[in-house]
Amino acid sequence: xxxxxxxxTGRVGLYILxxxxxxxxxxxxxxxxxxxxxxxxxxxxxxxxxxPSEISLDAYRNILTDSDFIIAYVNSTFYAGLALAGTLLxxxxxxxxxxxxxxxxxxxxxxxxxxxxxxxxxxLIVPQYVFFNAxxxxxxxxxxxxxxxxxxxxAMVFLLRQSMIxxxxxxxxxxxxxxxxxxxxxxxxxMPLIKAPLATVATFLFIGYWxxxxxxLLYAQTTKLYTLPVYVAQLYNINNATQPWPTIMAxxxxxxxxxxxxxxxAQRFILESVVISGMKG
Amino acid sequence: MxxxxxxxxxxxxxxxxxxxxxxxxTEAPMDQGPTEPVTLTVYVVDYAADATDVWLEDEVVPAxxxxxxxxxxxxxxGSWGTFSETVAGYFAxxxxxxxxxxxxxxNGLYGDQLAPLNDRLGPEAWPEIENFIPGTLENASWDGExxxxxxxxxxxxxxxxxDLMEAAGYDAQPTNFADWVKFAETATVIDADTxxxxxxxxVPVDAGTMADFQWYLNTxxxxxxxxxxxxxxxPNFDSPEADAAIQFNYDLKRAVYxxxxxxxxPEGTGSVIEEGNGAVCLWHSxxxxxxxxxxxxxxxDIQPFTGDLENFSDSxxxxxxxxxxxxxxxxxxxxxxxxxxxxxxxxxxxNHKYNETMNLIPARSDAHTGYVVENPVLQxxxxxxxxxxxxxxxxxxxxxLQDILQRELGAYLTxxxxxxxxxxxxQEQYTQVLVDAGYIE
Amino acid sequence: xxxxxxxxxxxxxxxxxxxxxLSSYLVGSLARFISKLAGQSRQRQENTFAGYFFASPxxxxxxxxxxxxxVASLYWSFTDYRIGTPxxxxxxxxxxxxxxxxxxxxxxxxxxxxxxxxxxxxxxxxALFLAVLLNRKLRGERVFRMTFYLPVILGFNAAVLLCWRLxxxxxxxxxxxxxxxxxxxxxxxxxxxxxxxxVVEIVNGFFLGLTNGNYTLxxxxxxxxxxxxxxxxxxxxxxxxxxxxxxxxxxxxxGSMMLIFLAGLNAIPREILEAAEVDGANNWQQxxxxxxxxxxxxIFYNLVVGMIATLQIFExxxxxxxxxxxxxxxxxxxxxxxxxxxxRFNEIGYGSAISWLILVIIxxxxxxxxRWQNRWVEYDLI
Lengths: 281, 441, 382
Fold this sequence. Notes:
- The complex is a heterotrimer.
- Chain A has helices at 2-36, 40-43, 58-64, 67-100, 106-115, 121-134, 142-145, 154-164, 170-177, 182-193, 195-211, 214-219, 228-235, 245-277.
- By secondary structure, chain A is mainly α.
- Chain A is globular.
- Chain B has 2 domains: 38-154 and 321-386, D-Maltodextrin-Binding Protein, domain 2; 156-316, Periplasmic binding protein-like II (D-Maltodextrin-Binding Protein, domain 2, 3-Layer(aba) Sandwich).
- In chain B, helix 2 links the parallel strand 1 and strand 2 (71-78).
- In chain B, helix 2 (52-67) runs antiparallel to helix 12, helix 8 (177-187) packs parallel to helix 10 and helix 9 (213-222) packs across helix 10.
- Residues 1-35 of chain B have low confidence and may be disordered.
- Mean pLDDT of chain C is 87; it is low at 377-382.
- The longest helix of chain C is centred in the N-terminal third of the chain and has 35 residues, at 42-76.
- Chain C has helices spanning 5-37, 42-76, 93-101, 103-134, 141-154, 158-168, 174-185, 187-212, 216-224, 242-252, 255-266, 270-278, 283-311, 315-321, 334-343, 348-381.
- Chain C has 16 helices and no strands.
- Classes of the chains: A mainly alpha, B alpha/beta, C mainly alpha.
- Chains in contact: A-B, A-C, B-C.
């Protein structure tokens, strides 16, 4: 009896603790949402206004009538989508080579690929910038998209390879007897079996592309090519007499909505695969 | 299930891109005329979205094309947020727009990579150049050559709230350093409950750190000091003016913030000197001042910064003048046509209209009509600009100097290092920069 | 064509796919030819072709986008290449200037060290705390887990970082307002707050002293004594706090680490804990004596992965301090400084030297990681 009471109070305490932690972790997002519905006066009020007394849609009206924001949204969608399609396909192909085929040099190439994971992306930006400049790619989406088509992201290849390697090899063997070649095996047998890991990789890639700030900052030369992070970052300008906080936060809310949606649908895979691969999302 | 949803979303996305791409194709005119027309590309900072850009695209270009039917004008709209990266890219590539919108500080950075324009826009080729405020042309010149044309003059003034000054016992702005420090201390109010400012006696650009390289350079120049010794290249941060100026920057900050535990003014709505926002005096340009239709202007006194005549006999009132300007990069194959277009955009009427979209003071003094003289604030600003303008120009390696000054001022004003070290660091590092850049042997 | 950016890039994308297909075929054929010359079996030849065919998108991309730029940047690091001017060979001068004379780079190194020394343990500690809370097989555990992981997904978006900037304002920012209200309503919290402020300022004062070679600031903190009752953290307002804001963001984004700890906690056999409970061990004793030793390998792992991530930190500093130049040097990371040197001052040669130095530092850390990983694997076998 005493034990159950202890047990129950322990449970309740745990829930309180977890809820508190959740509020803490989600607080910036809630504050973002709340601020986006405030007027400028409320956003800068000297006293705390948790929730605006009257929901103001001015900020959303401002941002949605700004053609640059709409352009940035379309740009981000185009960029993330096109980059994602090519990257995903090439990663799946390369993962196939590292998991289902035995070829001389495989281990060396695989080790080489893993070692690129420790090269910080920023260490390559300078020479890459000069290279893209030389081939006249600055001021286009190419530098943001095309490199991904070459199986960009060793961690993602690794993750897919781990999934592919678990599929029984007998499947391939019987397909070979039926006269299938490697491309058929890859596309018709293996790919349908790794839909879940593919979805995970797709989600990670999407998040990475959607959040990318440095790339578009360097390569998008005009406001017409700005993606959302660049657009939102430049809304805050220290030279402004007032920062348009509600507008900035409305832009932030609209920017993060796709991330929420993707995360919501893919959370099961993500939460499990982070552990498999042991890497950062 | 999840996969299906995801792949469905993916499919939808891909379709959208395809559609967006295609519609872009049908909308845009793809045909090129039989004669090869000149296309001028112009990189413009979009100061006032849906005003400046609309005016340039819908009025200026068609009017210009009436005179030059075979010229296409294409605008690239930029913003200061990504300016450095973008423009560095153009010059690195040796390829890009034929006209670039620059700020004051860039004449030292890109000056030698801009086309010299004396024989196209100089007084002999284009007499109208005489109408520009002289200080503004200084900003658009490098190495004795005109490199472009200034759009506007945006000087830094001292704006003070007369009502708050009176409440603190002052009926006029102080005119020397010691009085300014005393004033800032008297006019500042710290709330004991929150340990944060509720009224700030003086705001030099940045209300928080009160460290700002433009403000520092302004104080040096107001004392009659110079950045370079008589040879024009050796840095002069070991001069008495540089010393007194930095000490004044420090004292002024400590007059407002006795120590760095005091919180800043709450972020208000509108300019810091707007009603209820807490600042008494502001040194800044019209950008940071209240909107022109604000009622608070009736209680605002605008003055130049006077220096410190008690201790430095060369002191003089100045308004530090910044200009934004259009320049033609040396790589452009269309320098002649670019110069023609600039003459058109910088004509008396167009310079006036350009500035009207942003409510700024035109760089051409003959364009000071209409809104400029009708509004008492702009009129007062234009008067001061004409009389006390001091160009923010002629600085060697400006971005580097800015960086050194911001870092060292920041360190000194937050007590991370003392004044002697700070001045020594600035002098040494800036000298090194000029050696590296080849100015000093 | 560039006037139509979407079509331009779509065409390039299709062209790239064709190029990859062709180059893959060529690489595969070449490999098969070599295999044939080596007299291998027909089956082996086919496998060689398939392997290189499928792997070559990565191989070709590696050569174009990694090897080629790295060789170029290695060369430039020995020159004074600057945008707009021709470059000359200057030998080791860049590296000497970087290591011996560049105060800003030294500052960025010390800042990065600070984040690693203080931010990382806090991040790991908080992740472990959350994981232990979650590891109780509760109803709704998944919802909590999602919430804790959310910052990892959203956190490095510039939009969300700007929201932090709004909240961290010392005047009327929400965080300091809450701290003020809580200190007033609940005095022990006020004492805790003031004590934390004292500790933070002393430690930061010391590290800033290291950077500046001058301890005035530390001395000021010491002379002011225990913080007054109306003190709040000065997050993005003074150099004593700039790095703490970055740490706050690091701790907030601890979701990945938490998931790895959860995996580690799941691997602990239930029987051991149950046996301990029967022996009368309380929660804390269980944690200290059983759980903690068994998750140390995961702590090591997170430490090393986190270290590499910390060495590369960029976005939070860019968004929080980009336009606050007087304070920025107190928060610069190495990578931020690299960005600054290259794209603000256009110094490609010097920037390349910084890139290579960062690369070497990360290589050293990774080497340490391998040593730790060996220990980790052994631990796991027990």
